[in-house]
Amino acid sequence: MPKFLYLWLKRILCKFGNRELHIPLPVFGLGCGVLGLALPKVSLKMGEYASKLLKALEYRGYDSTGAAFQGNTTEITLLKDVGAPSTLVKTLGIEKQSGKIFCGQVRWATFGFVDKKNAQPHEVKCKRHIYGAHNGNITNTRELKSFLTKEGHFVQSDNDGEMLVHTVEHYFDIEMDKAGNPTDIDLRKNCMRKAIIQTADKLVGSYAAVIVDPVTETCWAIKAGSSLYFGIGTLEDMPFALASSDLTAVLRFTKQLVNLREGEFIEYNADNYQVYAQKNLKFKRLNQPDEIWYTGDKIPAKPIYSKLRAEDVELLPEYEYFMEQEIYAQSETTGKLIKLFQGGSNSGKRVLSLLAKAGVRDILLEQVQLFLTENNFAERHRIFTELLNSETFNLFFNQVFSTYREFFDVAVKEDFEKKYFFSNEKNFFLEMVNGEYDLKKISLAKTLDALAEEMNVKDFNASVDDFLQLVKNTILNNRNAYSIACGTSFHATKIAALFFNSIAGMEIIPILPGDFRGEYSNCIKDNDLIIGVSQSGETKDLIDIFNDIDAKDLNVRKVVLVNNMNSTLGQEKSDVAIPILCGPEIAVPATKSFMNQITLFYYLAIKTAQMKLNEIDNNLTQEQRLWRQQELDDYFVSLAKIPSLLKETLDNVSGEIEFMAGKIYMEPSIHILATKISGVAMEGALKIRETVLTHAEGREASEFKHGPNTILGKNTVFGVKHLRSLLRYFSENIDEIESLCEQEGIPHSETKEVYKALADYIFTHNQPFNLSPQGTNIFNRFVQDKDFFEHLYRNYPLIYVTGPDERDVNLTISQINTHKIRGANTFVIAEENEQLLKNASTRPSENSYYAWSYIMLPKTGSTLLTCFSASIVLQLLALKMSVRKMKKLDKLGVLDHGVHPDVPKNVSKSITVD
């Protein structure tokens, strides 16, 4: 097979066995991760599957790793210990295990010390034999331990996961006794379902869990406030079922997903599954009747085919880090989102035009809809083959092929070979081609894909239209719109407020969930609008706010911008969900999700302004209306330029970024000061804090004068470079003392005491009393009028970010001159401006050390577009600083320093615990 065809096929079919995802050490995470994989019979490769899954969840927990395997008997092989899965899958022998059921967990500790007994999974046999693990935070753990102990359970750890498993065991035993200890499998399963429901009433907190009954060889996956995904597929020609806290882990094995919502649990083995309500549930959607389920109800759930690209979890050969790959992917990911704004890809529109001319569009559209409801690959292949040979498609193919032979035979083949025409995200049907260049099959695949893309565009536009109607309602009722998010997503909402203010003249209040609860929660009224933003759709702080709002029973609508539409926020907590469509994001620091979020907000601001012009602003003159429409047309044009702006920025400023990174990567503290675009500064600072483990703050530039500027000049924030300077000066003083002692004939033993006295004096100013009169005299002469700390002080690094607006540039120039004379180095990120460059580069005085750098962004003349170019510069700066610092600390032999661009210590992709 030709190499290009092999690579294309590999991407199309989402195969992960040929290239292992590598998450390098040190690895840290937050939130834990749980897994449950079921096969119909024992597989010798179960350990390999388990290892791949555990390593995929490594970013969620590094404290401990565990795996439980079950074969053809009820005996369990339980392997667990302290440490990260990338190491323990080998040392514990997990890779070599066989089995038909695997239950695994990676832990970020909340309850219980980091030791082996607190590692999960937990196997319990006090009353009934079951095993399981959890992800989350059960806050009444201590009370549960006391309760369980009194009820006769032997609780071995302080881990909340063990409390959960024991609690399920406790109620399972009660239900089994009530049922007369049945041997019938269905009756036994029914007892377990009742136990899981009763356990939910006993636990306080948020969690996801996998519980296994070794007797019935059945698994239960429970979603109760933490992320949980479920997929089905085929391994080794056998069906399998997989539950995981992480979506990309499931995508490594299958793209067939079963949506799980908060308060649901799923009972499954390799061949069958059934979703149940763990409590009374009510799901609301805009303009649809409420969906109500009662505790214990069976809930119908069909698998859907994920549109996320599983290939995005692979590290491509040209990149060393996922963060790097994701930064450079942003031109593509924003471009795909913008194509959606524009009604679809050019190739898709071209195919739709040909279908319309041939008069077969509606007939084929019915086939696409039928195809998309079928989740069995063999059945999909049958439908595809049947359609390939149908009279309808053959009529279309023959007409188009004869009319557009050159296009299909030359352009399509060229695009096939270069992989341009066949990007997976918008080509669901190309897996039917099986990597073979068959013009007819490819034409059918592209035809069906164009129709599927048209359906996606309609769904997206419907969501945007719903959003606009909610915005209109809020404006007409003179109520408030709040944008609520955490971390990177919060910074995106800060930029969104700028966009809506500048483009639409509409106020959006960006606020953190905790601040919203403290400052606004009792002030919301009917017709307020809540806009939540979350990459994962599982951010616990945001889910809690949405639940609080629901509990008030007000006419308050909730919109969410989310990457994972199958998440809790995406499918059940919002009235309207709008996808950001950035694909899976592996590096813990968010980059492409942030860029797609602000791109989507830019679009929504323009659409809001258009809606206001068409439906609300009725008092404008015709001239004002024409002027306003031209302004909006210009914004739409600028929107289309975002992908090329990002690419040009990366292409042109990489060298300058490398230079700036080299200047500041070892600094202990940095401030990023932005004029008007403070969301950009805050996000840039977060990227540096996350990846470089350097204290960094981002703020509106003028605020630096109101207190934070006290850090300039002499301060006590010292880093490696400061200490090196002090040690060099100390070494010079040692040489001088040694020379003086030799001249005075002081013995070497006392000379060493003088050294020690000097080292103590520098940090305490205590006088030595153990020296001879001669030694004391030399010591006093030597330390007189010396300022040892002077050598610790260095200029403080300030990074300035501004748009090209003249007022903003002048304010930035004022800030630069105010701060550099007080001991600051100047680093500027802005479009080219001669005055800004001159003021940044001029030394505050001829005799002082002064460092400066100027990264010139592509010229746009727009502060709003600067948000995009400056953000990607700060992302790349953080990456370069992180890599430099990581290599430096490795060279210095600093153990467990935690600096890494993909998996920095103590942070995770999705915070799903309180």
Automatic annotation (TrEMBL):
GO terms, biological process: fructose 6-phosphate metabolic process; protein N-linked glycosylation; UDP-N-acetylglucosamine metabolic process
InterPro entries: GATase_2_dom (IPR017932), GlmS/AgaS_SIS (IPR035466), Ntn_hydrolases_N (IPR029055), SIS_dom (IPR001347), SIS_dom_sf (IPR046348)
Top EC class for this record: transferase
Gene Ontology molecular functions: carbohydrate derivative binding; glutamine-fructose-6-phosphate transaminase (isomerizing) activity
Residue runs in coiled coils: none
Pfam families registered for this protein in UniProt: GATase_6, SIS
Keywords tagged on the record: Aminotransferase, Glutamine amidotransferase, Repeat, Transferase
Domain SIS: 471-615
Protein name according to UniProt: Glutamine--fructose-6-phosphate aminotransferase [isomerizing]
Organism: Cloacimonas acidaminovorans (strain Evry)
